[in-house]
Design goal:
The complex is a heterodimer of chains A (294) and B (532). Chain A has a single domain, classed as MetI-like (MetI-like fold, Orthogonal Bundle). In chain A, 71% of the residues lie in helices and 0% in strands. Chain A has helices spanning 2-5, 17-27, 29-51, 85-121, 123-138, 141-152, 156-182, 186-194, 198-206, 211-234, 246-255, 261-288. The radius of gyration of chain A is 23 Å and the shape is globular. With 532 residues, chain B is α/β, with parallel strands linked by helices. Chain B contains 18 helices and 22 strands. In chain B, helix 3 (115-126) crosses helix 4 and helix 15 runs parallel beside helix 16 (467-484). The radius of gyration of chain B is 26 Å and the shape is globular. The chains are: A mainly alpha (294), B alpha/beta (532). Chains A and B meet through helix 8 of A and helix 12, strand 18, helix 13 and helix 15 of B.
């Protein structure tokens, strides 16, 4: 059989897609550097505020709006109230990164499951499920957040829930659209003919094939979530003084951009670096788990 | 015959094409030379990947430059080398001196523009300042020449309103609007039904007689070459292995590859099944109706009857062929029998499988029964999950239906089935996209027969494959049938294939059975198939 001899070299047998995926992820330099950067920033955000001598709300009356200096460990300067910007930036990272990761994860899990099920079952199930999404869409986001705050009181968890509650709607729509296109592909019909249970068709044949658009959407969601969080906090419904987040720090920095540029520079630098890193990591993940790139 | 001793109108000399990709350089075409004279048809014959399409594309410089490069060679048209021509001069030649028609009539037209506007576009491009009324008259003339039915009305129609054959006529009209010297036809008939194919070929022949343009005809289809070509060049792996007059190449081939191509058709007949074999599948009065329009509450207002009252009966070891054009309902019938359609659309009087009434069984019972009823689809590129390894694909069915088998037993079965379909064991860890079409189809067959089914639905299993691969897969299917006593329902539009594979044939049209024919009994009866 001529046909068989012409195929390429053997690839090692039995290696799973997951294993292959991680191997090629670690070979991707941009993704590797991104993981390192995210790791370092997360580490600094978690442990920085503990080990730095200044507290989040220590006020230096002699250093109101001071430029970066080595006095008193004020390497990033101080804000309008004379508080250490380095500690505040790192602490802001805790809030922003955790909101970004948790809210995105929540939207990912709910959105993918909901969208895939709705699209695959189709018919009346689909109609009911998607009308529910439409209803949630039509409720003003701020209204939901205010409602949550009124009922449960102010807490950082409300931000997770509030944002997650809204963000999964887009994800569900995207995944549903992809699923509608996929479910008429022959390999899905073939799986049905093989006797695969419906739920396993969704799990084994549909979801792995919607990964590309999902990863792209996730990398878009992360910065969006960080911005939404700062907006909620800015309205006084989220993080409260003296606690802070990158979004809030940037908002304060923008007001004083001309007199104290460092107040804008440092938090936005952290935010930008993280968003770049998330994007590269997302691209790397998408390529790594696409069998066609091996 | 039509050959003139004068200068060729197009001559391609020593042309090579390299593709510079991030992974390295691919030599797609090596030292290809051919020439075409006025009024003659040169066929470039080859299988997929032989470089015949990129040769055609390079004539109009339509390749993705600068990724594609020509290290050597020239393409001389009207005394100029097209490779060195500026963009501006090329635009003057494209669609004017040389024009092109494509394989896929479904996608070669802009869905949002009317037919008339699309045909006129080329006219305005090369004749600036032409008046609307003159253009309209010319477009209508062309549509009539290419025999678009009801041309005057159709000028305002949109592509979706036309059938595949009609669309291909529109595309030919577009190509001919500026009276080109050369028409490049890249597999213009491959996506069409057989009867429509013949009409389009005849149209091209007639048009050539009328206008005298030269045709560069790209194809993999020997019968099309037979009908239309004056000369043939056979391509393989980016090179021309043999060229000459049609008679000489097709009747007295010299190169072994040409001989192989000419010899690639399925031979012999299926051995008849035993007369007292038990009935495997018996289905009476299948009807399939698809809703076209639904009311607000989901009731269907109008429906399309895709299958009307079809009954079939299959004995063990028998192969029933179903022949029909696209839209005849043959695939729908297969899917209905396998209960792969939405149950509201299908109704049947009775359905017995292996002596059991399965017409009204629950979907869970049907799911368990699927190990005995398997299917192989047409498109080997679409029917395998792109993110699963070959091992995962074949194993999935075993895990569902034979969960009691030990790991070693499953492994043994998988290895055994790979031998059956002539694939290597070390292919198990790879993904579908790493395989050729024929290999993928073998994987799909392996997935089906690893379950040791009693009945196999073969839905155009070879029509997406190259000719010699087709023969290999068909022989494999016949061998497997003999070995495991399988019963086949074989759906195809290819008469030769059906003749070689089946005991009996039914012909379908518009959802109805036109005729049933026994092949085994009389060879003559089958001749009536040719007329359909």
């Amino acid at each position: 059989m001529e046909e068989i001899q012409t195929t390429k070299k053997l690839s090692s047998k039995g290696e799973s897609l997951t294993k292959k995926g991680f191997r090629s992820l670690f070979q991707n330099k941009a993704a590797l550097v991104s993981m390192l950067v995210l790791g370092v920033i997360s580490f600094l955000s978690i442990f920085g505020p503990i080990f730095l001598p200044n507290d989040l709300d220590t006020i230096y009356w002699d250093y109101i709006q001071a430029a970066p200096t080595t006095d008193n460990w004020l390497f990033f300067g101080t804000d309008a109230n004379g508080r250490d910007l380095l500690v505040r930036t790192l602490f802001g990272g805790r809030i922003s990164l955790s909101v970004a990761v948790v809210a995105t994860f929540v939207s990912l899990v709910i959105g993918v499951a909901y969208g895939a099920i709705s699209g695959f079952w189709g018919g009346r199930t689909d109609a009911v499920m998607m009308r529910f999404v439409d209803i949630l869409y039509s409720l003003p986001f701020m209204f939901i957040v205010i409602l949550l705050v009124v009922v449960f009181g102010r807490s950082i968890f409300l931000i997770y829930i509030g944002i997650g509650l809204v963000e999964w709607l887009d994800m569900a729509r995207i995944v549903r659209g992809q699923t509608l296109a996929l479910k008429h592909r022959e390999f899905v019909v073939a799986a049905e003919a093989l006797g695969v249970k419906q739920i396993n068709i969704v799990w084994r044949h549909i979801i792995p094939n919607v990964i590309s658009p999902v990863v792209i959407y996730v990398t878009l969601t992360i910065p969006k979530v960080i911005i939404i969080e700062s907006f909620i906090s800015f309205l006084g419904l989220g993080v409260q003084e003296p606690q802070t987040s990158w979004g809030l720090l940037i908002a304060e920095g923008v007001d004083l951009m001309e007199v104290a540029p460092w107040m804008l520079l440092f938090p936005s630098l952290f935010l930008v670096i993280c968003i770049f890193a998330f994007n590269f990591l997302g691209d790397g993940l998408r390529d790594a788990f696409d069998p066609k790139t091996h | 015959m039509k050959e003139s001793s004068k200068q060729p109108i197009l001559s391609v000399r020593g042309l090579s094409i390299d593709f510079h990709l991030p992974e390295g350089v691919t030599h797609a075409l090596r030292d290809v030379s051919f020439e075409i004279h006025k009024g003659e048809t040169l066929a470039l014959l080859g299988e997929s990947g032989s470089g015949k399409s990129i040769s055609a594309m390079s004539v109009l410089q339509l390749l993705p430059y600068p990724m594609a490069r020509h290290p050597k060679g020239s393409i001389i048209f009207r005394g100029k080398d097209l490779i060195t021509l500026s963009k501006k001069e090329l635009y003057k030649i494209r669609g004017n001196g040389i024009s092109m028609i494509f394989q896929e009539p479904m996608t070669a037209l802009n869905p949002l523009q009317s037919i008339g506007a699309q045909v006129a576009e080329g006219l305005f491009l090369h004749n600036p300042g032409l008046s609307q009324s003159k253009a309209k008259a010319r477009v209508l003339e062309l549509l009539e020449i290419t025999r678009v039915a009801r041309a005057a009305e159709r000028m305002h129609a949109y592509p979706y309103e036309l059938s595949g054959g009609q669309r291909q006529r529109v595309i030919i009209a577009m190509a001919l609007i500026n009276n080109p010297d050369i028409l490049i036809a890249d597999e213009p008939t491959s996506a069409l039904d057989i009867s429509v194919q013949n009409q389009i070929l005849q149209l091209l022949i007639d048009l050539q007689r009328k206008f005298g343009m030269a045709i560069l005809f790209i194809t993999h289809d020997l019968s099309a070459v037979e009908k239309i070509a004056d000369r043939v060049s056979v391509m393989k792996d980016g090179q021309i292995v043999e060229s000459g007059d049609k008679e000489q190449v097709l009747r007295r081939p010299k190169h072994p590859y040409t001989k192989l191509l000419l010899d690639s058709h399925i031979k012999g007949h299926k051995q008849p099944y035993e007369k007292d074999a038990k009935t495997i599948l018996e289905v009476a009065k299948v009807q399939v109706e698809f809703p076209l329009k639904r009311s607000f509450f989901g009731r269907s207002l109008s429906t399309l009857k895709a299958v009307k009252d079809v009954s079939i009966c299959l004995k063990q070891g028998q192969t029933l062929g179903i022949v029909g054009e696209s839209g005849s309902g043959k695939s729908t019938l297969g899917k209905a029998i396998l209960k792969l359609l939405h149950k509201n659309t299908v109704s049947m009087q009775s359905l017995f499988f292996d002596g059991k009434d399965i017409n009204k069984i629950s979907s869970e019972e049907m799911r368990r029964l699927r190990k005995d009823i398997q299917v192989v689809f047409q498109d080997p590129f679409g029917s395998l999950s792109p993110r699963m390894t070959v091992d995962g694909i074949i194993r999935e069915g075993l895990d569902i239906h034979f969960s009691k088998l030990s790991k070693a037993e499953k492994q043994e079965r998988i290895e055994h089935v790979l031998l059956d379909v002539a694939l290597n064991l070390d292919m198990l860890g790879r993904f579908p996209h790493e395989f050729s079409g024929g290999q993928r189809q073998r994987i799909a067959i392996a997935r089906a027969i690893v379950l040791r089914p009693k009945f196999l639905l073969l839905d155009e299993p070879t029509s997406a494959l190259d000719r010699n691969v087709q023969v290999q897969v068909l022989n494999l299917l016949r061998d497997l049938q003999k070995k495991y006593g399988l019963t086949y329902l074989f759906i195809s539009h290819d008469l030769d294939v059906v003749r070689a594979m089946s005991d009996d044939v039914i012909i379908m049209k518009n959802g109805e059975v036109l005729e049933s024919i026994k092949i085994g009994k009389s060879k003559k009866a089958f001749l009536s198939l040719e007329d359909f």
